[in-house]
Structures are given as C-alpha cells and as structure tokens.
C-alpha cells in the first residue's frame, strides 16, 4: 500500500515537471560530441525552446556588453590596468611578487591586447568577451544543479544583470575571474556526479586560472575542496585509491598555482597588517553585495533574496549535498568577508564569483510556481519579470556616465588654463586616468601630485602669478585620512564645481 502511494507521488511529480518542460516531447539529439552535426544543430535550433532562448540570450548578452563599450572614460583602476599592461611579461610577474595585490594573469592578457592599441574599447574587449561567454556556462550550471529551466533562468539573470554588465565593460579582472570560476564550478558539479578523472582535472585547471586572475577566488575554491574532502572522509580511512580522481584536481591546482601560492601567503599578511582606509566594513559588506548583485536597488535585492531562500529550499529537496555546498559557500564567503573587512579593503566586486551560486539558487525558485500552475508559461513569466526589473537600469546605464568622466573633465581644464598655470592632482595617483586624456606639455602647464596638506603648501609657495587648479576626488580620504588636504583647500582655495565625482578647486 505504501509502495503504491509512493508510486502515485512520483507519477504526480513527473506529470508536474513535464508540464514545465518548454520543449514538450522533443528530445535533444545531442548525446556526445559526435552528435554535433550540421543537421542535428539545425533541427535543434528549429525545435528546442531552450536552445532558441539561449541563442537569444547569448546574442543579447553580446550586444549589451559590447554596445557603447568606449562610452565611459577610463577610471582610476582601468588606467592602472593600462600602466601594468605596458610592462614586460616578467615585470608584471615581478610586480605581483613584489607586493601588487592583483595576480598577473589579467595583466598578461591585456599586455597582448596592447598590440591592437590602447583605446578604451581595446582595454575592455576581453572583459566584454568573457562576460558574454559566461552566459551559456550559467545555463549549464543551472541544468546540472536542477534542470534546464533553472539553467535558462540563471542565464537570463546573468544576461540582464546590471552588476555583471558593469564589470563586463570594465578593464579589470572581475568578469574574467567569474568566467573561470563558473567553468570550475560546472566541471566540479559534473565531476561530483560522475567521478570522472577528466572533469576533476578540469575543475583543478579552471580553479587555478581563477586564482591566477583574482586572489579572492581562493575562498570559494578552498570551500569546495574542503567540502569534497569532508564528505569523502570515510574513503580517507579506507582505500585511498578511491580518492584518486579528487586528488588529481587538487594536484592540478597546486602544481599550476605553486609560484603564486609562494608569494600569496606573505602578501596576505602584509595586506591585513593594518586597518583599511577605504571599502565597506562589517555586515554592510553583506547587504551592499546583495544589493549590487541584484540590480543596485534595495527593492529588487529584497525580492531576489526571497527567491534565493525559496530556491535554496528547492535545491535542498532535490539534492541535499548540493544544498549544503551552496549554503556553506554563501555562509563562508560572507563570514570571511565580514572579518577581513576590518583588516583589508573589502568591496562587493571582489565577491563576483558568488554569482553562479546566487543566480542559480534564485532560478531554482521557479519550481513551486511552475508546479502550482502546471504550465511552462510560468518559466516565460519568470524570464519576463527579470528583464522588466533590469530595464530601468539599462536605460540609464547607456544614456549617462557610470564612471568618472575624465575625458570631459580634461577638456574643461584645457579650456580654463593658460600657459604657465599649475595643475595639481590630489591624491597624486589619479593622474593615471587624467593623464590618459590630458597632456600638460601640449597645454603648456605644470603638473604636480599631492597627497598631504604639506604637498599643497609646497606647490602654493612656488605659484608666482600663475593660477593653481587642484583636481581632487573622494580618494583623498583614503590617501590623507587626517583630512589635512581638505582643510587646506577649504581655507585657501575657491571651489569651482564637480563633474561625475571629480572636484575642482582654484587658487588665483
């Protein structure tokens, strides 16, 4: 009697799931690489709703990430990328070994991109490229976690993610580390299911590439490895040969990362030796990260956070091991980030590797809704809601500057200065984006860098009859936490105004 009741429950569940399948009775012809023929691809595109939507998402993601790629000026970190990339291959490595807080892989890639020029588009090309290539990877991750609907919704979330779009058009390593970490997670999930050596090896290789791209990926990599060893603890006490596939991935990671690991450990202690002068501290790193992950809007963050919890519950019901893994990754990342925020600068973009976990969990929340109505229209509605929520951001993103407008600001300085005037950058390192657009030699001005009140006083003492134009950003708070520079300007200079966060003072 109990068996019949269980069978009826299974039949009902199968019937409910079948009502949510977008392809109906159509079965994919792809079972191996040999099935990827022109005829099969043509037939699949014509019949599979999943493939049709995925192609739409990939094409849309390509457009959104490459459209207006050079619209925004380079900001400070992007200008720093350019300066790093101009160095030789070995000098970039020496920079990391000598204390640079970013691994060298992205700068090496950008170094080769400089053969095509130094424009904003060239510098942002790789982030945009790997940004849209991550979309199908999210589909495959979601499919591996739960089903194709989860995959297609997760891919939609990434395609229209304001957070991911911004960093896909930013000449920094963030979209690249997400790409590598997403591939690592995909191959891990497949390896966890099949225990195939090749997938364990691929997990190790792409984890290594992620670590070579951004140090902070070590959190998720370490969590996954520790989780895997713990759930296989019994094998450690028995036949260790059963762990051979897992050990292959660990060996691949250590072998590929050994030079970087050697310099990372002392670098970590240097990085955490004093309190940070910028960034987000405490629980705010959690709330701010959630807000940025889900659209830079508190209301959308609350909405998607509710779906996140609901989706995690669905994953728990489907596969407890995957739920534990996801829950531990989320919990560990936020706890470690909360603790480190008091020891080193902490910014939500460092946590970008969490997107596949977050977005796939949100995507999994479609299941109870779809089963309630027993209709695949719920999946289409889910996709439509995601696009609708992202639309206001898209409109403003492409119509206004989302970064400091150093291009326009440099032209304003050129129109205001005369020969012999003095231009001061405070803090001095903002000269990197400014000088990308401005030449004091062409403008016949003198340019100085300032970090403290004393620097400003020294420049003022030699001004003569010239005017001093002091360009200052909020970075001065980190460079001069005592506030001496701002105090001096308030007492001795005239505030002219600001443009996209760049402020101008003048001393005549």
State the separation between the terminal residues, measured CA to CA: 94 Å
**Total beta strands:** 5
Low-confidence stretches: 1-16
* Widest sheet, order of strands: 2-1-3-5-4
Structural class: mainly alpha
For the biggest sheet, the summary is: 5 strands, mixed
- Taken from the alpha-carbon principal axes, the silhouette is globular
Q: What is the arithmetic mean of pLDDT?
A: 90
Q: Helix fraction? A: 55-70%
- Approximate strand percentage: 5-15%
Count of DSSP H/I helices: 26
* Radius of gyration, whole Å: 26 Å
Main attributes?
mainly alpha, five-stranded mixed β-sheet, globular, 508 residues
In words, what does this structure look like?
With 508 residues, this protein is mainly alpha-helical. Among the domains are: 99 residues, no CATH class; 102 residues. The protein is 67% helix and 5% strand. It has a five-stranded mixed sheet. Helix 4 crosses helix 6. The N terminus is likely disordered.
Summarize the structure.
With 508 residues, the chain is mainly alpha-helical. The chain has 26 helices and five strands.
Compile the SSE list and pairings.
Layout: H1 2-20, H2 38-47, H3 49-66, H4 76-85, H5 89-97, H6 105-113, H7 120-145, H8 148-159, H9 162-168, H10 174-194, H11 197-213, H12 218-231, H13 233-237, H14 244-271, H15 284-293, H16 298-318, H17 320-340, H18 355-364, H19 366-373, H20 377-397, H21 406-416, E1 422-426, H22 431-437, H23 440-443, E2 446-449, H24 453-460, E3 468-472, H25 476-479, H26 484-492, E4 494-499, E5 502-507
Parallel strand pairs: 1-2, 1-3
Antiparallel strand pairs: 3-5, 4-5
């Amino acid at each position: 009697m109990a068996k019949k009741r269980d069978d009826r429950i299974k039949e009902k569940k199968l019937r409910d799931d079948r009502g949510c399948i977008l392809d109906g009775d159509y079965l994919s012809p792809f079972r191996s690489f040999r099935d990827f023929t022109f005829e099969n691809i043509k037939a699949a595109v014509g019949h599979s709703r999943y493939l049709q939507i995925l192609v739409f998402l990939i094409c849309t993601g390509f457009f959104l990430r490459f459209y207006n790629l050079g619209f925004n000026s380079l900001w400070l970190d992007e200008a720093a990328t350019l300066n790093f990339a101009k160095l030789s291959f070995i000098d970039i490595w020496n920079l990391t070994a000598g204390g640079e807080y970013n691994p060298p892989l992205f700068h090496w890639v950008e170094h080769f991109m400089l053969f095509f020029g130094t424009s904003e588009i060239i510098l942002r090309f790789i982030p945009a490229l790997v940004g849209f290539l991550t979309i199908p990877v999210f589909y495959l991750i979601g499919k591996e976690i739960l089903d194709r609907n989860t995959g297609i919704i997760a891919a939609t979330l990434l395609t229209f993610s304001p957070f991911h779009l911004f960093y896909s058009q930013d000449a920094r390593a963030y979209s690249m580390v997400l790409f590598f970490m997403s591939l690592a997670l995909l191959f891990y999930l497949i390896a966890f299911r099949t225990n195939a050596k090749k997938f364990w090896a691929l997990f190790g290789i792409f984890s290594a590439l992620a670590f070579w791209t951004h140090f902070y990926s070590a959190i998720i990599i370490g969590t996954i490895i520790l989780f895997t060893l713990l759930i296989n603890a019994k094998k450690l006490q028995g036949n260790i040969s059963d762990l051979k596939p897992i050990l292959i991935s660990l060996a691949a990671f250590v072998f590929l990362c050994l030079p970087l690991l050697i310099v990372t450990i002392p670098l970590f202690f240097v990085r955490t030796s004093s309190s940070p002068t910028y960034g987000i501290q405490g629980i705010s790193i959690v709330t701010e990260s959630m807000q940025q992950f889900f659209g830079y809007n508190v209301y959308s963050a609350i909405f998607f956070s509710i779906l996140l919890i609901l989706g995690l519950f669905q994953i728990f019901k489907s596969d407890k091991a995957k739920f534990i893994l996801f829950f531990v990754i989320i919990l560990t990342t936020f706890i470690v980030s909360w603790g480190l925020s008091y020891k080193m600068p902490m910014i939500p973009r460092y946590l970008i590797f969490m997107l596949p976990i977050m977005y796939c969990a949100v995507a999994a929340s479609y299941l109870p809704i779809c089963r309630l109505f027993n209709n695949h229209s719920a999946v289409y509605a889910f996709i439509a809601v995601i696009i609708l929520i992202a639309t206001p951001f898209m409109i403003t993103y492409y119509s206004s500057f989302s970064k400091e407008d150093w291009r326009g600001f440099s032209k304003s300085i050129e129109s205001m200065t005369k020969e012999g005037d003095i231009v001061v950058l405070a803090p001095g390192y903002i000269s990197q984006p400014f000088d990308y657009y401005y030449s004091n030699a062409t403008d016949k001005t003198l340019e100085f860098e300032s970090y403290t009140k004393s620097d400003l006083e020294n420049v003022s003492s030699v001004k003569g009859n010239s005017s001093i134009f002091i360009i200052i950003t909020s970075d001065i708070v980190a460079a001069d936490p005592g506030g001496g520079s701002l105090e001096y300007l308030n007492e001795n200079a005239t505030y002219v105004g600001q443009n996209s966060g760049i402020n101008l003072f003048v001393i005549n």
